[in-house]
Each structure stands twice: as structure tokens, then as C-alpha cells.
Amino acid sequence: MTNQQSDSFDPLIATSPKSLSPCSSYWSDTIALDTPKQPLRAQTQADIAIIGGGYTGLLTAYYLAKNHHVDVCLLEANRIGFGASARNAGFVLSGSGRLGYSKMAQRWDLGVAKGIHNEFSQAVERVESLIAEHQIDCEPQDKGYLKIAHNRNAFKQLSDTAHFIDKYFGEKPQLISQARLKSEYMAHHQAYGALRVEQGFGVNPLKLLLGYKQMVEKLKVPLYEQSCVESWIAENGVHRLITSNGELRTKKVVSLGNGYTPKRFNPVLDKRFLPILSNIIVTEPLTPDELAASGIHTREVVMDTRILKYYYRLLPDNRLLFGGRGAIFGRDAQNPVYQERLKYALSQCFPALKNKKLAYNWTGWIAATLDDIPHVFERNGVGYSIGYCGAGVSFSAQAAYRLAEKIVGKPAPNLPLYHQAAPRFPGASLRRLGQWGYYHYGWLKDRYF
Q1: What domains lie within the chain, and their CATH numbers?
Q2: pLDDT tens digits, one per residue of 284-335
Q3: Which one of 7, 22, 100, 131 has the minimum C-beta count within 10 Å?
Q4: How far apart are CA 410 and CA 265, in angstroms?
Q5: How many CA atoms lie within 13 A of 93 on its CB side?
Q6: What local confidence, expressed as pLDDT, does residue 7 receive?
């Protein structure tokens, strides 16, 4: 079995993500990383510097260079293909994360909820367009996103959500009964029905990332790998980004490391996110008999309604990918108990696969915000984008597009996503303790309510 990441990097403990190896995963076995770019050497300059070579970083560089003809340079601490963009489940979703649209309407108003819904919908369309325009061979699967109700109360909430979307957004999501879910989609033993939307599909996330990298390379944007920013000094209107071998001087900086950003990096970003470890397992290929016994008839992306969510999909080679939360601390990432928990959860959903062998198991860090929405923010020459709430494969594209506009002074839609800084966590040093308490609360609520 393939091991998890070889280190125990934890963004709230380590001082930097320097010199970490790429993730060993199912995705890394499907495609090799490109020949690494040279690290930054000596001193150079650019109008805008991007820190982080994931989806958001690459696409922000792409839109700045292509649409706005800006002199931009990108620094990646390790390899492009190291971080969350190469470790995720490959779900291209229009979902709003932990905060539903009706709650958005309550927090702000209906116009804001509609605006955010439109941005998330555009995000999926943008990824589809980039894949088609640049012919990125990232194995897009059947369209459709199933939200599985894990109990009767959750199915009632999905029914309310369907009514809200139909009434106010002009869309008609499908509310699927327990019987229909079993006969047409999957014989899920813990499901009480589902909500299905057309906008959503699965991809190979690493192939998508490398496709984005090629797009940026064609525009001749300088990309420097193994170039971890070890010191960030702002003086006289100039930002000095100092690495082991060089220095980049720039007028503006965009920090896009998301969950891999160190806890102390820049005052604009510090204490505004909680790194959370996600864990994914992938089985050996399912035989035709196992597919029939488990009743899986779809390759659409699936997520349940739990607070501590599980997400899964059937891959092109008939392996089942299954993901959920990992350890709280990076030092525990490789503890077998987390893999065993996921395998148990998989077997509870599909008992016929109880004894199915696993082939892959890996982890990756994502970033959560205190208010459960993404924040794409720029002020006084420093910007960031964090907190995608499970929709990062899609929303990163929209975030990059909007962030590029904001950097060059163009207005973004008047939405909290783009005009409010991510709130700082109170008692930031106790974030892990709060996470531990929230996980226990979530477990109890998922189990009994």
C-alpha cells in the first residue's frame, strides 16, 4: 500500500513548508510531475509576485499575464504538484461549503445569496471552459453531484434546500427518494435520499494542475520551484521576498499557499485560517460482481450531509475513492486509526465492500475560515485567497479570475467573498483545541440528531 506524505508537516507548528516531498497518492501514480523548474537565484524583480503554485496561484498568474498583461512571477516552496491541488479528491462542485444559501440570505440578504450562488456556478463553468479551451486531459467524469442525506432530518433539510433554490435561483434540483437512489444511483445503506444537481463532476486533480502549469508556461511567466519564501520584508513601498538562494523584489504580493501557509507569515494573513487535515483512501479496482453487490451505478461525485462529511466517487478504473477528516495534528497523520476509520465508514455505506483491500491512503491540508466562506482579498498591495470549504477545485478558478481583477484595480462584485477580510480566530493559539471540541460535537450531532 502507498504511504501517506513522508513528513509530518503541520502549518501551525512548522516554521515553513520548505523541502517537503511531493505526495505519494493514486494521482501521482497516474502521471509523473514535470521536470522541476529552477529555483530563484540571485536578485530579480517583478510588478506582482505570487506565492504558491497550486490552482489559485497558477490561474492568478495566468489571468494577470493573459488578460491584464502584467509582469508577474510565481514562487513555489516545493514542487508544483506538492500541495492540496495534487492531494484533493478532484470534485468540481458548485456547492457553497458549510454555509447554505438560505443561511447566507439570513446572514446578509437574498441578493447576496444569489450573488454568491452565481459566483460558485461561474466557477464550475470556468473550469469546464479552461479544460475545453486548453485541451487538458484530466479525465472529466459524468456530470452530477449527489448530496446524500445521512438521516431523516437531513433529508428534510435537503427538501427545504431544493425548494429554496427552485424558488429564488430559478434552478430545479432533483430531490431523490431513498428507493430511487438505490435503484438508479447506489445502494447506500446509510442514505435516506439525496439532492442532485447537474453542476458538478470529477477530474484527476493532478492532471488538471499540470494542465494549468502548461498554460502559464506558454505565456512565459517565470515559475520558480524549490523557492520557499523564508523572509518577507516590506520597506519603502517594496516587498522583498527572500529565499535560500535569491530575492524577489516586487510592488505587490499575493499569498496563495492556503492550508500550507505557515502560522506566522504576514500580518495581513496570520490567524485568519485553520489548517485541517483531510484523509483519502482508494480501493483496489472493483470487480463487476462487487459493483453489482454494492449497487453502485454512477460515477457522479457524492458527499453526505454530516458535519464531519464523507465524500466519494467511482474512478475511471472502477476503484472507489473515499475521503473524510484526518488527524488533528500533523504528527498523527500516518496513524493507522484514521485510515481504519475511513475504511469502516466505507463499509457502513457499502457492506459488500467490507473486505475490499485498499491500494492508496494519503492526507493533505486545507484551510477553513472562521465564518465558513472563502475570502478573496487585496489591500495596499497584499492579497490572499483562502477557505474554499470543499469547493476548491472549482472556486479556485473564479477566485483567481477575481483576484487578478482586484490586483489591477478593477471592481469585483459587491459580495463578502471579495470585500471582507477573513476574520481572525479569537484565541488563535487555541485553534487546535477548538478543532478537537468541534470534532466531538460533530460526531455527537451526526450520530444522534
Answers
A1: 35-88+206-271+372-439 (3.50.50.60)
A2: 999 999 999 999 999 999 999 999 999 999 999 999 999 999 999 999 999 9
A3: 7
A4: 27
A5: 22
A6: 60
